[in-house]
UniProtKB/TrEMBL annotation:
GO cellular component: a single term: signal recognition particle
Function: Involved in targeting and insertion of nascent membrane proteins into the cytoplasmic membrane. Binds to the hydrophobic signal sequence of the ribosome-nascent chain (RNC) as it emerges from the ribosomes. The SRP-RNC complex is then targeted to the cytoplasmic membrane where it interacts with the SRP receptor FtsY.
Encoding gene, per UniProt annotation: ffh
Parent-record interval covered: 1 to 295 of 454
Record-given protein name: Signal recognition particle protein
Organism from which the protein derives: Insulibacter thermoxylanivorax
SRP54-type proteins GTP-binding domain segment(s): 101-295
Length: 295
């Protein structure tokens, strides 16, 4: 599983604490120094690390914690709770429009996993008895339309495509098509580029203004750590994202993006992708992720 590096280090810090019958303030400070280093090495944003350590220290020292029966365990529990808070506290649900279809716009840089994730999300919704429509609005990457069509065929979800025409028109017509055919979710796979540029953002804004999506989800590659967080921040400033999807967590040994993206951008992580297969997408639960990270 992912985060081996971070989990291993935290476990060794905690096993020292856990073993102690008596924990002093110095023990806590020592443990937190090591936690801090582990988080920085995991590529967690340094401000996020600083605030996190301060919060844990405040709660762990000066209270009744150190006098408690199992002080080490209490400190570990505080770390767990603060880590959960950092990643959003509770699960943030996908929006559902009271006037279907619910429109979801998928954005992201090329290679982040946007097209694959669109297919996975359609699959997830289909399993919940919804009727999704996939929309091929990434008209620049030649293989993207075909890739989405193949995914659609695989899971038997319709794919709306008008070839390489205007993506704004494609998106608007797709929503109409969904209404006429009683499809309750529209998932729009928009164009990605290698870098964030004005042209890309303008196009995304035009699509957003045309279809007024209920969700604008940014797909980011967790393996890119703080780069993913920076990408999320830029997209959020331009588009006001409603959520983030972290992909490639199966290959992420560090965990920096997962831990800091919510704290830095304010956008909740709504889904996590952990593999290339069509079923490898899960709703993101901060408390489960914290437990996974702490091992
Ligand atoms: P796009 O350019 O953002 O649309 O990216 P694609 O959807 O084409 O994905 C790029 C590559 O990443 C493909 O080879 C996918 O199979 C792979 N990929 C996507 N999500 C995941 C994931 O969660 N785990 C792994 N290991 N690979 C993924």
């Amino acid at each position: 599983m992912a985060f081996e590096g971070l989990t291993g280090r935290l476990q060794s810090v905690f096993s020292k604490l856990r073993g102690k019958g008596k924990v002093t303030e110095e023990d806590v400070n020592e443990a937190l120094r090591e936690v801090r280093l582990a988080l920085l090495e995991a590529d967690v944003n340094f401000k996020v690390v600083r605030d996190f350590i301060n919060k844990v220290r405040e709660r762990a020292i000066g209270q009744e914690v150190l006098k408690s029966f199992t002080p080490g365990m209490v400190v570990i529990d505080i770390v767990n709770k603060e880590l959960t808070e950092l990643m959003g506290g509770t699960h943030s649900k996908l929006a559902r429009s009271t006037r279907p279809p619910t429109v979801i716009m998928m954005a992201g840089l090329q290679g982040a996993g946007k097209t694959t994730t669109s297919g996975k999300l359609a699959r997830l919704l289909q399993k919940q008895n919804h009727k999704p429509l996939l929309v091929a609005a990434d008209i620049y990457r030649p293989a993207a339309i075909k890739q989405l069509q193949i995914l659609g065929e695989q899971i038997k979800v319709p794919v709306f495509s008008l070839g390489e025409t205007n993506p704004v028109e494609i998106a608007a017509k797709a929503v109409e098509h969904a209404k006429e055919n009683h499809l309750d979710y529209v998932i729009i796979d928009t164009a990605g580029r290698l870098h964030i540029d004005e042209e890309l953002m303008d196009e995304l804004k035009q699509i957003r203004d045309a279809v007024k999506p209920d969700e604008i989800l940014l797909v980011v590659d967790a393996m890119t750590g703080q780069d993913a967080v920076n990408v999320a921040q830029s997209f959020n400033e331009q588009l006001e994202l409603t959520g983030v999807v972290l992909t490639k967590l199966d290959g992420d040994t560090r965990g920096g993006a997962a831990i800091s993206v919510k704290a830095v951008t304010g956008c909740p992580i709504k889904f996590a992708a952990m593999g290339e297969k069509i079923d490898a997408l899960e709703p993101f639960h901060p408390e489960r992720m914290a437990s996974r990270i702490l091992g």
